[in-house]
């Protein structure tokens, strides 16, 4: 591999970063993680380009133009999603990524390095399937420049944090940044958006990483770890201000749980209010961690919409999912947000372990009683590795302990699927704000 690297010892390298995602899935996503890795790589002295295929009409033409004009010495490909998480005719998105990588191979023989949230869940199996040279699991802001340093100098890659080599496995234990403020902010000039004032997207803002809640189906721990690590509110505001100065007014806080810790969420809101930024934004809530003060601050800071991921309206199912809240907490949270004038989008996941016709009906009735502005219903739950759900699926014989789960497999209670589809269809009639 080292013979393919044309940079001399210590010489800056030309790195082309490609965001392979072309799927919207509820929002128009911008490659936040890849932007941050590109900034860190540039800060380490390298020449970088970022190509977001979401903004390109012809991916192959865009890749050809980028490689022929830039002549990269390394290509980094970000994999955001493995599939669309839909049990009804699931779309396996890695086939598109494989075509992208194959096209890169026809134009260049430089090393291709994978990364991204989707890749980090399946670091070894995705690497094998996509036939790239290597991949970095988890945070790339430190690991990617460290990898380039070794590649530049012909140093053995063994020990590089989170690095997988195809056919050789993990080379070094992955590391999580303990202090997020030490990581660079994204560059607002790298977004591939022609109109900053468009309503079609929100600039992604990440204030913290990691989630300790350990829901039985969730893959977040494989991506970000289980410990919450926060940026200082001052740096978060700096990031927003830079985007406001560039003309952006709509933002989306992508943190898995915006309202945890509660005091941190309040501090962020106060700083947005104090700076009079003139922005609107939305975020994700964990039910139950809220009070009147936070709701008032959210409204004053012009938070327009909150995603309320309660997933079930049945106490027993919430317990099986390892949720740390109860139905009264969901209702209380929803009522407080409605009083504050903040729109809500709810989420139900039906058909998981313990689900019955009675519990599913209870969930649908409960969700209906909340009078939410929008509701997304999922039938069947995508099984991810290293989750309690995957262990349940093994115990019940749905999957083997040897399954890598790269190709989507869904958990659904036997004999419940057909009934659920008909029941959900019936409930959705007359409720145009419900989708599945």
A few lines on this structure:
Helices cover 36% and strands 17% of the residues. The protein has 436 residues and is of the alpha/beta class. It folds into 2 domains: 2-170, Cobalamin-binding domain (Rossmann fold); 193-435, Aldolase class I (TIM Barrel, Alpha-Beta Barrel), CATH 3.20.20.
In percent terms, what proportion of residues is strand?
Answer: 15-25%
Task: Tell me the number of strands.
Answer: 18
Structural class: alpha/beta
The helix content, as a percent range, equals 25-40%
What does the model show?
With 436 residues, the protein is α/β, with parallel strands linked by helices. The chain folds into two domains: 2-170, Cobalamin-binding domain (Rossmann fold); 193-435, Aldolase class I (TIM Barrel), CATH 3.20.20. It contains 15 helices and 18 strands. It has helices at residues 32-43, 59-70, 94-107, 117-121, 123-130, 140-153, 220-224, 233-245, 262-275, 292-300, 315-320, 327-339, 357-369, 388-395, 417-428; strands at 14-19, 47-52, 74-78, 112-115, 134-136, 163-165, 169-170, 203-205, 208-209, 229-230, 250-253, 280-285, 303-311, 343-350, 374-379, 381-382, 410-411, 434-435. It has a seven-stranded mixed β-sheet with strand order 2-1-3-4-5-6-7, sandwiched between helices. It has a seven-stranded parallel β-sheet with strand order 8-11-12-13-14-15-18, covered by helices on one side. Strand 11 (250-253), helix 9 and strand 12 (280-285) form a beta-alpha-beta unit. Helix 2 (59-70) runs parallel beside helix 3, helix 8 runs parallel beside helix 9 (262-275) and helix 9 (262-275) runs parallel beside helix 10 (292-300). The chain starts with 13 loop residues before the first strand and ends with a strand.
């Amino acid at each position: 591999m080292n013979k393919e690297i044309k940079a001399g010892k210590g010489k800056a390298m030309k790195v082309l970063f490609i965001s392979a995602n072309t799927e919207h899935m509820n929002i128009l996503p911008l490659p936040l993680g890849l932007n941050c890795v590109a900034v860190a790589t540039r800060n380490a002295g390298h020449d970088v380009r970022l190509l977001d295929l979401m903004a390109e009409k012809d991916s192959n033409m865009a890749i050809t133009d980028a490689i022929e004009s830039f002549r990269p010495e390394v290509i980094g490909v970000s994999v955001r999603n493995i599939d669309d998480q839909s049990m009804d005719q699931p779309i396996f998105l890695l086939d598109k990524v494989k075509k992208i990588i194959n096209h890169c191979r026809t134009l260049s023989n430089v090393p291709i390095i994978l990364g991204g949230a989707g890749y980090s869940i399946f670091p070894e199996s995705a690497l094998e399937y996509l036939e790239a040279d290597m991949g970095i699991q988890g945070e790339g802001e430190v690991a990617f420049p460290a990898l380039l340093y070794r590649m530049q100098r012909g140093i053995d890659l063994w020990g590089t944090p989170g690095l997988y080599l195809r056919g050789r496995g993990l080379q070094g234990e992955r590391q999580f940044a303990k202090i997020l403020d030490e990581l660079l902010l994204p560059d607002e000039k790298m977004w591939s958006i022609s109109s900053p004032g468009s309503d079609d997207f929100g600039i992604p803002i990440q204030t913290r990483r990691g989630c300790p809640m350990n829901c039985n189906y969730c893959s977040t721990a494989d991506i970000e770890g289980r410990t919450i690590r926060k940026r200082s509110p001052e740096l978060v505001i700096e990031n927003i201000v830079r985007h406001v100065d560039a003309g952006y007014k709509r933002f989306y806080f992508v943190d898995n749980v915006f309202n945890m810790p509660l005091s941190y969420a309040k501090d962020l809101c106060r700083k947005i209010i104090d700076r009079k930024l003139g922005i609107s934004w939305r975020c994700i809530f964990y039910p139950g961690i809220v009070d009147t003060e936070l709701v008032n601050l959210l409204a004053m800071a012009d938070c327009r919409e909150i995603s309320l991921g309660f997933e079930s309206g049945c106490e027993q199912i919430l317990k099986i999912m390892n949720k740390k809240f109860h139905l009264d907490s969901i209702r209380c949270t929803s009522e407080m947000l409605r009083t504050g004038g903040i729109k809500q989008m709810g989420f139900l996941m039906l058909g998981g372990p313990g689900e019955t016709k009675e519990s599913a009906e209870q969930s649908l009735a409960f969700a209906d009683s909340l009078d939410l502005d929008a509701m997304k219903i999922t039938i069947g739950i995508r099984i991810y590795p290293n989750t309690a759900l995957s262990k349940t699926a093994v115990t019940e014989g749905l999957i083997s302990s040897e399954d890598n789960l790269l190709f989507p497999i869904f958990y659904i209670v036997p004999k419940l699927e057909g009934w659920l589809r008909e029941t959900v269809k019936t409930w959705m009639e007359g409720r145009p704000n419900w989708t599945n």
